[in-house]
DNA sequence: CTCCATCGTTTACATGCGTAATCGATTACA
DNA sequence: TGTAATCGATTACGCATGTAAACGATGGAG
């Protein structure tokens, strides 16, 4: 296979919040992103612009011109990001094994009935 | 219930590596920790001492005097740390639901046969 | 009792991150 | 056509982090 996504550096937590709104809908202007993300974090427009610029530098976003302004779109897929981050955690905390993670969540009562049902279904599918 | 463990601030990634060796065996001196952790990360003794000091400040470690030096022991349990970190990730990336995490790991082929078998066993236990 | 090795503590410094103001360019409107 | 609003870019700044050297105290060996 060719090059992996080649997503430059790591995406920080604040940057991730910005990515989320662009994964939800893209392309969007800085102003739009600011409004969207404002629902959760209370950031000023300059702050959001800084994060957007950093994400462009990190090659996580592309820009397309629209008159005076830019429209931003994700370059990396959410599933890639989520996959990388999940793997990182599993590697760091559970020696790369997913089962202990599961045990941990179970012990911490972090598994709802729905979760359990869904995981059961997933397992059944995996075995086929 | 009384106070939660009250573990002060967040433990960074480098600090976590130090915690791991102390969870493995405690108490240990700075020199010992340095040797242990040296297997994975190539840190100088001063570096390890800095991390130990920061962890004491963060109330993640306690010290007990042993002649000239200190012996360090974890204050917070590994399961607590691991639980908090797991929950953080699940909240941040999967809206607090564990099932999508498993779907993700499954899709990324991060689940070994052993994992699947173990999770299956755990599920059976949960349902009883 | 003296001196050296070894502690923990203090200080250091580059980088990344969170948060934001300012500035120069540009566009749209009057 | 001039000017006000707005855009992206540049600069800023404090705190956390990763990494480490320097320093001062102290305990053990001779």
From TrEMBL, chains A, B:
Keywords: DNA-binding, Transcription, Transcription regulation
Domain of life of the native organism: Bacteria
Gene3D superfamilies cross-referenced by the UniProt entry: Penicillinase repressor domain (1.10.4040.10), Winged helix-like DNA-binding domain superfamily/Winged helix DNA-binding domain (1.10.10.10)
InterPro entries per record: BlaI_family, WH-like_DNA-bd_sf, WH_DNA-bd_sf
Similarity remark: Belongs to the BlaI transcriptional regulatory family.
Protein name, per record: BlaI/MecI/CopY family transcriptional regulator
Organism, scientific name: Novosphingobium organovorum
Taxonomic lineage of the native organism: Bacteria, Pseudomonadati, Pseudomonadota, Alphaproteobacteria, Sphingomonadales
């Amino acid at each position: 296979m060719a090059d992996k996504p080649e997503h430059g550096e790591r995406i920080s937590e604040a940057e991730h919040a910005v990515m989320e709104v662009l994964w939800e809908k893209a392309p969007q202007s800085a102003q739009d992103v600011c409004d969207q993300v404002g629902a959760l974090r209370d950031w000023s427009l300059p702050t959001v612009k800084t994060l957007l610029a950093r994400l462009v530098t990190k090659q996580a976003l592309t820009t397309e011109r629209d008159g005076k302004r830019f429209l931003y779109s994700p370059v990396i897929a959410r599933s890639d990001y989520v996959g990388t981050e999940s793997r990182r955690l599993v590697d760091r905390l559970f020696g790369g094994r997913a089962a202990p993670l599961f045990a941990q969540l179970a012990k911490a009562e972090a598994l709802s009935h729905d979760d359990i049902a869904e995981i059961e279904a997933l397992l059944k599918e995996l075995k086929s």
